[in-house]
């Protein structure tokens, strides 16, 4: 029990099969109706829950219609509109600047390449991957958020801690047709069972192939710390 399978390929195949069965309909939980709304929602979601973002964007998307509205918004007013979001001042600035870039460089449209997206203010590779996948139906990589980082390390699929390094390893080990869905599966499992502080290992569908299982392992491979 609590032991990774003999090869990475077998480990990956087994965990994907089990998670697909457990979470057959999992998908992105951010709410949006167009590419700009998706971009803004993902910028806001950094170090913030999707639930909180959705509660804020319900009013935000009603108030601001299109990139010009954000680009021309008063910084303090926009910050106040999102002040229940973590780092709201910085994120308000990112949104204003990114929308100005959209107007000046992309005719007001959200671009469809990794390079163009990551040139936007406040947009890193994770955000760009989400926008590409769910805004443009382009799967160029794996979205590595905190859940993906934690589960990938706990399942001993990487020892890396940098998200981009983890993404490179996942792209080498996960079938390309699973790159997008892997993130949703990990997020669903991370929220429901494999939480950061107190994972429910006894009721986990991956317990017997997880070398971080508290049932019979002493250390959390995600943090490197002993289980308390």
UniProtKB/TrEMBL annotation:
It catalyses: Hydrolyzes mismatched double-stranded DNA and polynucleotides, releasing free thymine; 2'-deoxyribonucleotide-(2'-deoxyribose 5'-phosphate)-2'-deoxyribonucleotide-DNA = a 3'-end 2'-deoxyribonucleotide-(2,3-dehydro-2,3-deoxyribose 5'-phosphate)-DNA + a 5'-end 5'-phospho-2'-deoxyribonucleoside-DNA + H(+). Residues 44-192 form the HhH-GPD domain. GO terms for biological process: DNA repair. It comes from the Archaea. Pfam families: HHH (PF00633), HhH-GPD (PF00730). PANTHER family: A/G-SPECIFIC ADENINE GLYCOSYLASE/ENDONUCLEASE III (PTHR10359), ENDONUCLEASE III (PTHR10359:SF18). Belongs to the Nth/MutY family. DNA repair enzyme that has both DNA N-glycosylase activity and AP-lyase activity. The DNA N-glycosylase activity releases various damaged pyrimidines from DNA by cleaving the N-glycosidic bond, leaving an AP (apurinic/apyrimidinic) site. The AP-lyase activity cleaves the phosphodiester bond 3' to the AP site by a beta-elimination, leaving a 3'-terminal unsaturated sugar and a product with a terminal 5'-phosphate. This is Endonuclease III. It comes from Halovenus rubra.
